């Protein structure tokens, strides 16, 4: 279950990052509320995952899911720049996540 919690926590990290951008500096109530709720849920699920997963593994994968997820959401929904170098960077992050998972004893 720890890996499921960790994955959901990572997805929620993408959600709160997206809605933080939409909140325009916490000046819009709806996106601000979604940001805070998703943040709390993400941290709670990360803490549950860390009960059985090593800190280095859990935190690295959580931030990696958030980073790559925010990168994809930025491109797809916010029209952010796509370049070969940015895509290569995302591929390297995902490769690191896969290696981290494969090297974990859990």
Question: If you had to describe this structure to a student in words, what would you say it looks like?
Answer:
The chain has 106 residues and is mainly alpha-helical. It has one domain (2-103). Helices cover 81% and strands 0% of the residues. It has 4 helices and no strands. The protein has helices at residues 2-22, 29-49, 55-78, 84-103. Helix 1 (2-22) packs antiparallel against helix 2, helix 1 (2-22) packs across helix 3 (55-78) and helix 3 runs antiparallel to helix 4 (84-103). The longest helix has 24 residues, at 55-78. The termini are close together. The relative contact order is 0.17.
Mean pLDDT: 94
- Sheet bearing the most strands, described? none
Q: How much of the polypeptide forms β-strand, as a percent range?
A: under 5%
Number of DSSP-assigned strands:
0
Outline type:
flat
State the distance separating the first and last CA atoms: 11 Å
Q: State the helix count.
A: 4
Domain count, please report it. Answer: 1
Order of helices and strands: HHHH
**Into which percent range does the helicity of residues fall?**
over 70%
The radius of gyration is 15 Å
**What is the structural class?**
mainly alpha
**pLDDT < 50 runs, ≥5 residues:** none
GO biological process, one term: xenobiotic detoxification by transmembrane export across the plasma membrane
GO molecular function: transmembrane transporter activity
Membrane topology: Multi-pass membrane protein
Subcellular location: Cell membrane
């Amino acid at each position: 279950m720890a890996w499921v919690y960790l994955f959901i926590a990572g997805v929620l990290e993408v959600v709160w990052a997206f809605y933080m951008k939409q909140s325009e500096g916490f000046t819009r109530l709806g996106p601000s509320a979604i940001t805070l709720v998703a943040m709390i849920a993400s941290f709670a699920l990360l803490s549950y995952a860390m009960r059985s997963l090593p800190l280095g593994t859990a935190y690295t994968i959580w931030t990696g899911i958030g980073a790559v997820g925010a990168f994809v959401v930025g491109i797809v929904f916010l029209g952010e720049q796509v370049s070969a170098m940015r895509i290569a960077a995302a591929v390297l992050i995902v490769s690191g996540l896969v290696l981290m998972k494969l090297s974990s004893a859990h």
